């Protein structure tokens, strides 16, 4: 298996890289027997984000997407598997539970230490090598770069958070991963659209990708958007895309990304 079969990279012409680390929908054939049958439904996928973000080509963005499911490897977790949110429910580098807390694997088939290292080398490392290389390329070419880490999630998951999640959750690692002007630009777009609820650095502050790669002092700015799937799709199986809902949220989403990019460009001196 080569890196080119692990992920898809489409290079753009402006200083923004969009990563969608949780849209993969494949589980390798040799691993499928290890999971409980329910896992093969891939319910915790960030469904349809490529379709929702179909404006990225028009913006000239570079886009990086994985092939394999987060149930195989979570590309937004640190390689040492340290919890991203201490004190809260967390999923691991090689997740062992659904977002609802039930086990993903058949008894006795959970990945051991050697298997976790194998998956990290085979799936995680090539994705992050590509991510780092593209950020360096764009930073070298334009003097600055914006990393937009795109996610979506069901609006209510008691095992992970209490109550209903805000519609749009902007994360900049508590202002450590992006210039404040970028965070403000994105937030202002959302505030101007009161029909959606917004949180900034709330329950979702950004995962490993945002926290690790965001280095504002080096003109690399990282923003995570965790959005509720209720904005554009059916949150229960079969997880169908909702054209009407999506059409309502897409202009706002495009404006958020565009405003963040403009603020990134203007923040560079």
- Through-space gap between termini: 42 Å
- Tally of contiguous helical segments: 6
* CATH class descriptor name: Alpha Beta
* Stretches with pLDDT under 50, minimum 5 residues: none
CATH superfamily: Zn-dependent exopeptidases
Helix content: 25-40%
Give the topology string: H per helix, E per strand: EEHHEHEEHEHEH
Structural class: alpha/beta
Number of strands: 7
The spatial strand order of the largest sheet comes to 1-3-2-4-7-5-6
Number of domains: 1
Largest sheet: 7 strands, mixed
State mean pLDDT (0 to 100 scale). 94
Query: Can you tell me the CATH topology?
Result: Aminopeptidase
Q: Using only CA atoms, what is the Rg? A: 18 Å
Would you spell out the secondary-structure blueprint of this structure?
Layout: E1 7-10, E2 16-19, H1 49-52, H2 56-59, E3 62-66, H3 113-142, E4 145-153, E5 168-171, H4 180-191, E6 198-200, H5 208-213, E7 220-228, H6 243-267
Parallel strand pairs: 2-3, 2-4, 4-7, 5-6
Antiparallel strand pairs: 1-3, 5-7
Helix pairs in contact: 4-6
Description:
- With 269 residues, this protein is α/β, with parallel strands linked by helices.
- The chain has one domain (3-267): 3-Layer(aba) Sandwich (Aminopeptidase).
- Helices cover 30% and strands 14% of the residues.
- It has six helices and seven strands; from the N terminus they run E-E-H-H-E-H-E-E-H-E-H-E-H.
- It has helices at 49-52, 56-59, 113-142, 180-191, 208-213, 243-267; strands at 7-10, 16-19, 62-66, 145-153, 168-171, 198-200, 220-228.
- The protein has a seven-stranded mixed beta sheet, sandwiched between helices.
- Helix 4 runs antiparallel to helix 6 (243-267).
- The longest helix is centred in the middle third of the chain and has 30 residues, at 113-142.
- The model has no long low-confidence stretch (mean pLDDT 94).
């Amino acid at each position: 298996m080569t890196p080119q079969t692990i992920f898809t990279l489409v290079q753009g012409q402006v200083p923004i890289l969009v990563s969608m680390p949780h849209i993969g929908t494949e589980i390798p054939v040799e691993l499928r027997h290890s999971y409980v049958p329910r896992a093969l439904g891939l319910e915790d996928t960030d469904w349809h984000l490529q379709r929702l973000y179909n404006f990225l080509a028009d913006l000239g963005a570079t886009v990086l997407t994985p092939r394999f499911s987060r149930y195989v490897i979570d590309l937004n977790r640190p390689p040492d598997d340290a919890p991203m949110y201490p004190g809260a429910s967390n999923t691991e580098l090689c997740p062992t539970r659904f977002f609802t807390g039930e086990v993903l694997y058949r008894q006795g088939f959970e990945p051991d230490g050697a298997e976790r290292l194998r998956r990290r080398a085979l799936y995680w490392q090539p994705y992050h090598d590509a991510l780092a290389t593209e950020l360096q390329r764009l930073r070298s070419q334009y003097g600055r770069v914006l990393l937009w880490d795109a996610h979506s999630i069901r609006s209510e998951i008691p095992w992970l958070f209490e109550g209903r999640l805000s519609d749009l959750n902007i994360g900049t690692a508590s202002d450590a991963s992006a210039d404040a002007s970028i965070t403000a630009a994105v937030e202002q777009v959302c505030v101007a659209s009161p029909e959606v609820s917004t949180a900034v650095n709330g329950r979702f502050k950004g995962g490993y990708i945002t926290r690790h790669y965001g280095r504002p002092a080096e003109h690399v700015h990282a923003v995570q958007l965790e959005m509720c799937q209720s904005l554009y799709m059916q949150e229960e199986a079969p997880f169908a895309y909702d054209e009407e809902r999506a059409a309502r949220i897409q202009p706002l989403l495009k404006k958020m990304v565009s405003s963040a990019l403009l603020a990134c460009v203007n923040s560079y001196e």
